[in-house]
Amino acid sequence: MTELRQRLYRQRVSLFWWLSKPTYLLFVVRELTSVAVVWFVVYLLLLVRAVGAGPESYQDFLDWSARPWMVAVNAVALALAVFHTVTWFLVTPQAMVLKVRGRRIPGAALAGALYAMWFLVSAVILWLL
Amino acid sequence: MAEITLRVSRYQPETDTAPTFQEYAVPLREDWAILDALNYIKDELDPTLSYRWSCRMGICGSCGMTVNGEPKLSCGTFLVDHAPGPILVEPLRNFPVIRDLVIEMTDFMHKLGAVQPWIIRDETEDDPSSELLQTPSQLDDYKQYSMCINCMLCYSACPVYGLDSAFIGPAAIALAQRYNLDSRDEGAAERLDVLSDDEGVWGCTFVGECTRACPKGVDPAGAIQRAKLVAANEAMKAFLLPKWAR
Ligand code: SF4
Ligand code: FES
Q1: Chain A touched by B97 (CB under 8 Å)
Q2: What integer pLDDT is reported at residue B246 of this predicted model?
Q3: How confident is the model at residue A2 (pLDDT cuts 50, 70, 90)?
Q4: What are the BP-aspect GO terms (chain B) (predicted)?
């Protein structure tokens, strides 16, 4: 048995495995876009800190946010975060199985509910502003 | 009759240190799967070629190979769908190769056993003369997962398993769920120890390729995410609730 084991040929995964299939690449991009989500959390924390430190620092924060490069960073981050959200909504029905009266709710309905919730929350926040 | 070329991966452990390719021209018959072509090669052209097969009808799960880069059952993948060729035939990825297209699967067998894929139940209270009935809805809960034929195509498609073979992997988790979701089973707590391990469900990053590769529509990726939900729930309960309330 040991002799046989030594003669096994071990296949290796290439460092660039994620380029070998479009679906692998989509997965890696989805994972990388989580960086944009992290950025928005940091941005929110900075905002809270600025508000807590008084009107002057809040004004500074607004000025800083209005700089062209900051607007650009936030625009790109928003696009990435939207991509992240949409790709996750696409796979959520696979992970969530809800049954109503013994029947499984179809995936499209579940994804639809997620989108509805997303737009509802966004609308409420816009109305608050 | 028209012909098609198969480029088949050859590895002879007695003489080779790495696989090489060998080309064979076979008749391009409309009703031939890759497996028929391999049988033709073995019978007519080269008796030294080694590969596994049994049922030739997508039931036994032994004929998995990499066909043009994709994990496939060779009995269910037709030559005409890959014409004009050449068709690249390699062993399943992510497993050590014993010879030619034959891979070593002991690792998968251990993992399968680890999730106890059978009904666990305290039968002392059961009436031996009566059946354990199930409603269609209860059957529906696990039926999809029971379609698994242990072909290992999902392991071959999974980059997580390829990079770290300690990961328990898609089919083992799908089969654990097959029994966890069975209304007659009482073994979910026992299986949770294996599933909630670092090398269990948490190894999965939801690439989803296992589900795309599965020839039986099992959806192991979905099974894993559902198992994650249960594992996370149980961990929260163990953390928050006193023992008697769990
Ligand atoms: S889950 Fe699908 S791909 Fe994986 S071993 Fe079972 S039948 Fe094969
Ligand atoms: S020979 Fe049995 S599944 Fe292909």
Answers
A1: yes
A2: 62
A3: low
A4: respiratory electron transport chain; tricarboxylic acid cycle
Q: What's the structural domain count of chain A?
A: 2
Q: What is the CATH number of domain B105-240?
A: 1.10.1060.10
pLDDT per position as a tens digit, A50-83? 988 888 888 988 898 889 999 999 999 999 999 9
Chain A: closest CA distance from residue B246 (Å): 23
Share of chain B above pLDDT 70, in %: 99
**Tokens at B117, concatenated:** 């894929």
Q: Which atom of ligand 1 lies nearest, measured to the CA of B220?
A: 1
Sort B185 into a burial class: Cβ within 10 Å, 0-12 / 13-18 / 19+.
Answer: middle
Is the distance from CB of B25 to CB of B4 less than 8 angstroms? yes
Number of Cβ within a 10 Å radius of residue B230: 18
Looking up tokens 């950025």 gives: A39
CATH 1.10.1060.10 positions along chain B are 105-240
The shortest CB-CB distance from A9 to any of B97, B205, B209 is to B97
The verdict on A33 and A84 lying in the same domain is yes
pTM above 0.80, yes or no: yes
Low-confidence residues of chain B: pLDDT under 50: none
Residues A83, A102, single domain; the answer is no
Give distance in angstroms: CA of B236 to centre of ligand 2.
43
Question: Nearest chain A Cα to B161, which residue?
Answer: A13
CATH class of B3-102: alpha beta
Work out the angle between the directed axes of helices A22-32 and A34-52 (0-180°, nearest 10): 10
Among B59, B78, B214, which is best to mutate for testing ligand 2, by the most ligand atoms less than 8 A from CB? B59
